[in-house]
Task: structure prediction
Amino acid sequence: MAGSSPAMTRMMESTWTLHPQLALDTAPAGDLPLARVLLANDANYPWLILVPRKPGLVELIDLEENEQVQLLGEIANAARALKNITKCDKLNIAALGNQVPQLHVHVIARRRHDAAWPKPVWGAAAASSYDPVARERFLTTLRSGLQIQALRD
Amino acid sequence: MAGSSPAMTRMMESTWTLHPQLALDTAPAGDLPLARVLLANDANYPWLILVPRKPGLVELIDLEENEQVQLLGEIANAARALKNITKCDKLNIAALGNQVPQLHVHVIARRRHDAAWPKPVWGAAAASSYDPVARERFLTTLRSGLQIQALRD
Result:
């Protein structure tokens, strides 16, 4: 599962912007070769969102086949890192996009005693605010696990 | 995205059985090289479930990397077929498994006027029974789109 070339990355990103609703609902962890990794602003669940940095995507099948494979590899990396960090009971992985059309993939660590278990997380419980220090600590651990760096402003 | 060899398929299937809850909630459409394709018993949404025919799987990342890529290809094929057949507004693709632990992937055709829109489908509306003739017609169209055959008893 090869990464994108720097030239390809620059070309992709020249016209891509994160959907404002996703920006509002998350904090950026950093960039994998194809996808930006975001942490959802909900301390109920360790909840990542991966957004391929290519404009105009709505469905998974809008990606070229090699990009789908790249995204799959990044989803798997994020899932493994999240599982290693959280020791969760179950991973939930989903591309829904009924409300925010920009293609994004949820990778969520679930625990048998979390706020929504065994239901899916969407709409199940009011979002819980992160303690800022706990969130920064989690982001640091996550960046280490995914070998990514904080985005520069 | 190569298929499994017949020998590998036989070996996998020798110990794999479909989880009884999935069997209860669906009708079989047929087998792709890795995954069994099921149609959920809920006429509210054209709703496929793909189940890799390999025993002991819980998470997507329990699959070997080449099997993950194979499953992704089958998910993409199922998603394209479902979109072509239903002309849906959005695809929802998800591996949750909080209630049924056997790895299974939902591929759901969503419409802006369906019973749950814009919410996810799980728990949103009581399942609606298929008219048996409409269900058989949909399964036939689906088998044609996916180039799969009805399972033999």
In short: The mean pLDDT of chain B is 94. The two ends of chain B are 29 Å apart (CA to CA). Helices of chain B lie at 6-13, 20-25, 65-86, 132-146. Chain B is about 35% helix and 20% strand.
